[in-house]
Specification:
The complex is a heterodimer of chains A (463) and B (348).
Chain A (H helix, E strand, L loop, with lengths): L5 H17 L1 H19 L1 H23 L4 H29 L9 H17 L8 H9 L12 H9 L6 H34 L6 H32 L17 H7 L2 H18 L5 H19 L3 H19 L1 H11 L1 H24 L3 H9 L18 H21 L4 H6 L3 H18 L13
Helix pairs in contact in A: 1-2, 2-3, 2-6, 3-4, 3-5, 3-6, 4-5, 6-7, 8-9, 8-17, 8-19, 9-15, 11-12, 12-13, 13-15, 14-15, 15-16
Chain B lengths: L10 H29 L19 H12 L5 E7 L8 H5 L7 E6 L5 H13 L6 E6 L1 H5 L13 H4 L3 H13 L1 H13 L26 H9 L2 H4 L13 E2 L6 H16 L3 E6 L6 E2 L2 H11 L4 E3 L13 E3 L2 E2 L1 H20 L1
Parallel strand pairs in B: 1-2, 1-3, 3-5, 4-6, 5-7
Antiparallel strand pairs in B: 8-9
Helix pairs in contact in B: 4-11, 11-12
The chains are: A mainly alpha (463), B alpha/beta (348).
């Protein structure tokens, strides 16, 4: 059941209606039941695994808290619980690869495992109290709006809200509805118009011309962003309708001037997770090693971030590239500042943004390729060469899709530019009703007429 | 999101207000949906005895529906598949080169892809159709297309593609809602007239045979009326051609070869007598010899007939309606060339 399926629309509307009909007392139960239906609809096994992991984390949290006065035991409980969670996750992730058989990979497991690890760590550090209400905890772990692809929620944010679940106010609801529309526009008018053609090039690397490889590599970050941030907007918007505020996951990543900045703006819930629970503890352990310690921690952290995405060397290299570039950026900060003075701020900013985008696009070749050999072949054959005509530049994207995706991307950039200067969606609320409604009709109509329906997949579902 | 300053409504009334406004927002779209289901502009919601309309219909669906309409009364065993150039091969004309009693139908698609051809053959196989003869009419572009293209005119019937009926109808509904389409359609519905600017509308009336989907091309009538002026007055449709033959780049890659192999295997399973015609395009671009060799290898010798390039068939511009399509008078010559050997063999 994808976010853009009829089944999901029915479940969402039903859940919304029942939530507001039954009143405050049963609202959590309705949300939890909807979440279980949502997960179980994919496969009952997915629901069983998710509930088992959630109950395990629930029990482990209480145990960690109870052993707080005996540090040795607490350490064993914490590390043992983390090890179990990681083993369960890696077991599902690598079982298929290691045994050569097809083992069912539970949807969302990477996200909720990391969420459980965050919870246990917070309890272990004494930042959060262990949750005693099993319904609240299950809802925190399984909430259907963020179950499949995050955001990876910290207990301090979502669990606290779940405990004090309040109905959404009208402004929250309209804001959420607008975010859902923005997400749908990103997904259906950019990602899905580009996706099939980029996939086709990546699926036939050896037949594609140099210019086709180049175009697919350059467009893939746009597709990935539109797909994933579109999903996130729908998740955040949907949660707002139920009175829950999920964490932001993107903050105009393509305006980043460095890869380090990029990772503060891209998949924020994951990058901040690895920063807080992996990089900072690691860096504090090796702080005596000076710069080498920081560099080593960064590399380990980003390799882990890469491996989080999937089993295989391609993801290791994907993470490693990010780590190496960030280390390089740290080492060359002075030189880059000198260059900024020489070139002027505007030109330097633009060039830095382009450089950051290209580095990310290059690393995504490893992210998307099936094998390392394929990725290296891909990079080795990037060029402006065509097989027969310059029409190959379009990688087969029909003119109509080019226009729809291009115009929407432009609109998205403008929207994000103004979002950075103040919340556009809230400012819209203050406009005259006629203007607002004209815009709502326009966007819904454009989505209805030009959105590419029929693809229910999101790229990050596979993780 | 910052907490807005407006006073919160009670949750129930907030939800009611949101639902009411959402319904208000969706009201015009509900109107479009109702009109779509009422009018069935693409003739895909209900069955019809004759598939001709003021709307440019999806040929993939029309062909399949004509086949379904007639399969119980006409024992079809011969199928013309390929792109819109199949219009040069009327079924009656082809049947003259087949065994007595063989009955043909044209199941073509505009800008047909190899994938669509394969899916149709699979659908015919599932339908237990007798695949005795197949005439494939292709060109380099069709051969290069390993995926079904996007757009309403390339949508395959759900029975053929395996897509859900809802998914297909959703795409058609979406096309119906396109401003280009919707406004032209509403104008036609109100005035009953079709102007040349109405891109998705069919001003020619009846254009296909309801039994075998043969094309009744309105341009033939124009040619009869205008004679030589037909070609003389359309310089944009008949641009100058190269003096030296240009060979196209190869188009059959791994993916295309795999599809062709599957098509050949399916036809071989049915012992189908296949003839594959590479169209004599007006542009005289020669199919790459590597592609011809690949086709010969996959389908066997004596099956593939390449009429592309500069030759006796492409030389005369009178054989063309415009640069994309040729006439049945040329189709007849091609069939004679294709079946010359067989018929010679028969007479011998």
């Amino acid at each position: 059941m994808s976010f853009i399926s009829t089944e999901f629309a029915c479940l969402f509307v039903l859940c919304f209606a029942v939530c507001y009909l039954v009143g405050q007392r049963f609202r959590k139960a309705v949300l939890l039941a909807s979440s279980c239906i949502f997960i179980g609809y994919f496969h009952v096994g997915f629901l069983l695994v998710a509930v088992a992991v959630a109950l395990f984390a629930y029990g482990a949290g209480i145990l960690i808290e109870k052993t707080a006065d005996r540090p040795g035991r607490q350490q064993v409980a914490f590390w043992g619980a983390c090890l179990c969670l990681v083993l369960c996750w890696t077991g599902f992730r690598y079982a298929g690869k290691l045994t050569g058989t097809s083992v069912l990979f539970p949807l969302g497991i990477s996200f909720y495992t990391f969420q459980a690890l965050a919870y246990l760590t917070e309890v272990y550090w004494g930042e959060e109290k262990a949750e005693r209400n099993v319904t609240d905890f299950l809802l925190y772990m399984l909430l259907f709006l963020k179950f499949l692809s995050g955001p990876i929620e910290r207990p301090g944010n979502l669990l606290a809200q779940v405990k004090e679940l309040r109905p959404a106010t009208y402004p929250m609801m309209t804001y959420g509805a607008k975010l859902i529309l923005v997400g749908l526009i990103k997904k259906l008018m950019i990602a899905d118009h580009l996706g099939p053609y980029i996939d086709h090039v990546f699926a036939s690397v050896h037949e594609a011309s140099g210019v086709q490889l180049l175009m697919a590599a350059l467009l893939y970050p746009v597709e990935l962003y539109a797909d994933f941030s579109g999903y996130t907007d729908m998740a955040v918007g949907g949660a707002l309708l139920f009175g829950l505020r999920l964490s932001p996951n993107f903050d105009r990543p393509f305006t980043s001037q460095t890869t380090a900045e990029f990772w503060r703006r891209w998949h924020i819930s994951l990058s901040s997770w690895v920063r807080d629970y992996l990089y900072l503890p690691l860096a504090s352990v090796v702080r005596g090693w000076g710069q080498w310690g920081i560099a080593g921690s960064l590399l380990v952290t980003f390799v882990a971030l890469g491996v989080w995405h999937g089993a295989g060397w391609t993801f290791v290299v994907y993470g490693l590239i990010q780590g190496i570039v960030i280390v390089w950026e740290q080492r060359t900060a002075k030189a880059r500042n000198t260059l900024r003075d020489r070139l002027g701020n505007r030109l330097f900013t633009l060039l830095s943004q382009v450089r950051t985008y290209l580095v990310f696009a290059l690393s995504l070749i490893f992210f998307k390729a099936q094998t390392l050999e394929e990725a290296f072949y891909y990079i080795g054959h990037l060029s402006f060469r065509v097989h027969s005509s310059w029409k190959e530049v379009s990688i087969g994207i029909p003119d109509r899709s080019c226009i729809v995706a291009g115009a929407t991307l432009l609109l998205l950039l403008v929207y994000e530019h103004f979002m950075a200067r103040g919340d556009v969606l809230q400012r819209l609320e203050r406009q005259p009703a006629a203007l607002r409604w004209a815009l709502y009709y326009l966007f819904v109509f454009v989505l209805f007429a030009y959105g590419k329906f029929g693809t229910e997949n999101f790229i990050y579902l596979q993780f | 999101m910052k907490q807005p300053n407006t006073p919160p409504l009670q949750s129930g009334s907030a939800a009611r207000k949101l639902v009411l406004k959402a319904l208000l927002l969706l009201l015009p779209f509900a109107g479009i949906v109702v009109l779509y289901f009422h009018d069935d502009p693409f003739m895909t919601l209900r069955r019809y005895p004759v598939y001709d309309s003021a709307v440019m219909l999806n040929e993939e669906m029309v062909g399949w529906n004509i086949y379904r309409n007639n399969r119980d009364s006409i024992p079809f065993n011969s199928f013309i598949l390929g792109n819109s150039c199949t219009m040069a091969f009327p079924c009656r004309m082809w049947e003259q080169h087949l065994a007595p009693g063989d009955r043909a139908i044209r199941l073509f698609g505009n800008g047909e892809s190899m994938r669509a051809i394969y899916l149709k053959l699979q659908a015919l196989e599932r339908d237990s159709a007798e695949l005795k003869n197949v005439l494939l009419v292709l060109d380099g572009t069709s051969l290069s297309r390993s995926q079904v293209q996007s757009g309403y005119s390339f949508l395959l019937p759900p029975e053929v593609s395996g897509q859900s009926l809802v998914g297909v109808q959703l795409k058609l509904l979406q096309t119906f809602a396109l401003p280009n389409f919707l406004f032209a359609y509403l104008r036609y519905r109100m005035t009953g007239t079709i102007s040349s600017s109405m891109k998705y509308m069919n001003p020619y009336g009846r254009i296909r045979n309801p039994q075998n989907n043969d094309a009744l091309n309105p341009r033939e009538r124009l040619i009869d009326e205008q004679q030589e002026a037909y070609w003389r007055d359309r310089p944009k449709e008949f641009p100058p051609r190269p003096e030296q033959e240009v060979v196209a780049a190869p188009v059959i890659g791994d993916e295309q070869a795999q599809l062709l192999r599957q098509i050949a295997a399916l036809l071989h399973r049915h012992r189908t007598k296949v003839r594959l015609i590479i169209s004599p395009d007006y542009d005289q671009l020669k199919l790459n010899p590597a592609d011809k060799a690949a086709l010969d290898h996959l389908f066997g010798r004596g099956v593939v007939f390449d009429f592309s390039g500069i030759n006796a068939y492409t030389a005369d511009y009178h054989n063309y309606y415009e640069r994309g399509h040729y006439r049945p008078i040329l189709g007849e010559r091609l069939l004679q060339a294709v079946y010359e050997e067989d018929e010679g063999g028969k007479s011998r």
